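retry 2 of 3: previous attempt timed out while embedding flavin-adenine dinucleotide. Reduced batch size to 1 and resubmitted. Inputs unchanged:
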Amino acid sequence: MGEPDQNKSANQSAQELGSESRATAENKAASADNAALDKTAAGQVHAGQTNIAASQNNAVSNTANSPIKDAPLARYTTLRIGGNADYFYQPSSVQDLVALVSDLQKRGEKWYVLGGGSNLLISSNGVRGHVIRTAGLTGIKILEPGLLEAEAGARLPHLAKMAAQSGLSGLEFAVGIPGTVGGAVIMNAGAHGSSISAILKTALVLDSETGTVKEMTNDELKFQYRRCLLDPLKHVVLSAKFIMPQDKPELIEARTKHNEEYRLKTQPIGFPNAGSTFKNPFPDKSAGYLIDSSGLKKTQVGNACVSELHANFVINLGNATSHEVAALLKQMQNTVKEKFDIDLTPEWKTMGEFSDDELSVWRTNK
Ligand SMILES: Cc1cc2nc3c(=O)[nH]c(=O)nc-3n(C[C@H](O)[C@H](O)[C@H](O)COP(=O)(O)OP(=O)(O)OC[C@H]3O[C@@H](n4cnc5c(N)ncnc54)[C@H](O)[C@@H]3O)c2cc1C
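retry 2 succeeded.
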C-alpha cells in the first residue's frame, strides 16, 4: 500500500492506497455474513502480501458505487434491529469509498458509514439518506516486521487471529470484539486492559468537509475511553497501521484463545446484542455493577431485555424494535440515577430516525 502524503486530494491518495490493497471483495453480503466473516479461517499473512477476506454471501450485491434502494439494515447489525436505508452501498475499494463520500458530500446528501454494526442502534423507522457499509474493504498487509496495515472493513476477530498466527502481538484483546478496524478506531475499542490506541500508529482518514485524505498519527487522533477526535458524520477511516511486537505465534495464540474463552463464559452470545450498552462511569464502578445492583437484570420492554448473564448487555429476544430498546435504556438510566445519582452514558451510537425523547438517552448531563 502506498504511503499517502498528508493532505493530498482525496482521490489521489485513495488511488495510491487502492492500487495495491485491493481485496477482491465481491461486494456481496447478507444476514449471515457478520458471522461468516468472523469465522473465516484465519490464514497467515506474510510480509508484503495482501490477504483477501472477501465477504462470502450474496443475497445483496451491488457494483461500484451504484446504490441499492430501500435496503434492509437489521441484518448488518449484531442487534439485528433497524429499518431500511434509502440508499445502500458496499464499495469494494478505498478509492470507491472516497469518491462516493466526496460526491455525496458535494451534493449535500446525508451519508453514514456502517462497519460491523456491532456498536449501533439503527432506528426501526430506517435511515433517510445513504448508508455505506465497509465490508468490501478487507485488505490486510504486513508492511515490515512489526507493522501491520488493515483496511477499514477488516474484522477484528479475524485480524487478531491472523496476527497471532503471523507472530504479531498486540491484538489479543480484540478477538472477541466483533467490529471492524474503522469502527474500532472511532470507538477506541478495548478489552482485557488494552485498546486500539495502545497499538495504533496511524489511521488514514478522509475529512469529508475539506475533501482531503490524511494519515493521522496516534497523537493527533486524541484517543480517550471509547472515543477519539474523529466524528463519524464527518470523517471516514479508510485504513490503519498497527505497531505489533513480534513474539512466538503459539504464545500469542494462547493469550488470544484465553481471551476468547473468557468471553464465551461471560457474555450472552446466544442472543443478538451490541456489547456493552453504557460506558463505565468510573474505573472502579462499572455500568454492569450499577445496573445489576439496581435490580435491572431481566427487565424487559417488549422484546428488548437486560441480560441475566451480563447486566450491561441488552439483548434482542426476537423482533425487538429500536423504540423498545431506547425505552429500556431510558429505564436503566433513570433507575441507576435514582439509586446511585450517577448518569449512565450509552457506549452505542445511533443511526437513523429517533424521536427527541429517544435521543434524550444519548444526551448526557441531563
Ligand atoms: C458481543 C460483543 C462484544 C463486544 N465487546 C466489546 C469490547 O470488549 N470492547 C469494545 O470496545 N467494544 C465491544 N463491542 C462493541 C463493538 O464491537 C465495538 O465498539 C466496535 O469497535 C464497533 O465497530 P463496528 O465496525 O461494528 O462499528 P459500527 O457499529 O458499525 O459503527 C460504530 C460507529 O463507528 C462509525 N464507523 C464505523 N466504521 C467507520 C469508518 N470506517 N469510518 C468512520 N466511521 C465509522 C459508525 O458510523 C458508528 O458511528 C462488543 C460488541 C459485541 C456485539
